[in-house]
Amino acid sequence: MSPQPTSTALRRSQSLSAIEVVLQVAETLSFVEAGRRLGLSASAVGKSIRTLEERFGVRLFYRTTRQVSLTEDGARFLVRCERILAELEGAELELSRRHAAPRGRLRVALPTASAFFSPLLADFAREYPEIALDVELGDRLVDLVHEGFDVAIRTGEPDDSRLSSRKLASFRHVIVAAPTYFDSNPIPKNPSDLGTHRLLLYKKPHTGKIEPWPVGSMTTSIGLGARGGIIANNIDALVRMALAGQGLCSVPDYFVHRELEDGRLVRVLKSSTRGTTTFRLLWPTKAQQAPKVRAFVDFFAARLPPGRSAEPRHE
User: Three-class SS of residue 43?
Assistant: First the structure.
């Protein structure tokens, strides 16, 4: 048997209901219209008002057969009623926001580009302190559903029907080398010159294939040059080797933005480099409504919108 409400609790409940009646009558100046809004009869509205008036010993409304209007006491009471309901609605809103706030562990898979993504992740963590980020940085093609990732950022067209996607900013590949490399090597003037240079090539971890270089009229399959080179499955390692003067490297522009700005790397074959690549957010469709996933998707979509060039944020 459920517990019965105490007389105090019952009075409070009745008072809140009566306050709502007062507000509606004051707004509509009609018992009939107030009742329609509240799902009550006009007589029930009138009874509620009379009960309050008898309880307080004052008249809240003047009533005639043609109109209803507030008395001076009624106007003062109305101000208090509005304040009480505003406080109640504010408390309800605060509680609903608290329980709807994104929270929990969020597993994220991002490309190897810590200098680019780290500031964005830090901003996200500050904005959503109740989300615990579990980030995997790497070029491995993770299976979001099977491995339990909540969201990932990748390039290329999505080909998994279990995933939802959203476009982000785009980037282009650039061919770069350290100035010291050209102390003993000629600057390439056209794509055919690449065969005589030391090349630093990226091997895709999930396929083992060498990534083509976007030069000439189309992307070109590149092998090690006549003077050898280095193959690695990590872009960061290739950039470090390029900085050390070990050869030419084709990398996303956002990855070497600062190095190009400060002159530690120089770009070559600018007019021969073609095409752009788009980042995409991917997440399991079944998780689409999870507040933590939606917060991450909306956050990154706002900061890396489609059509924008992906560049590191300047501090």
Answer: helix
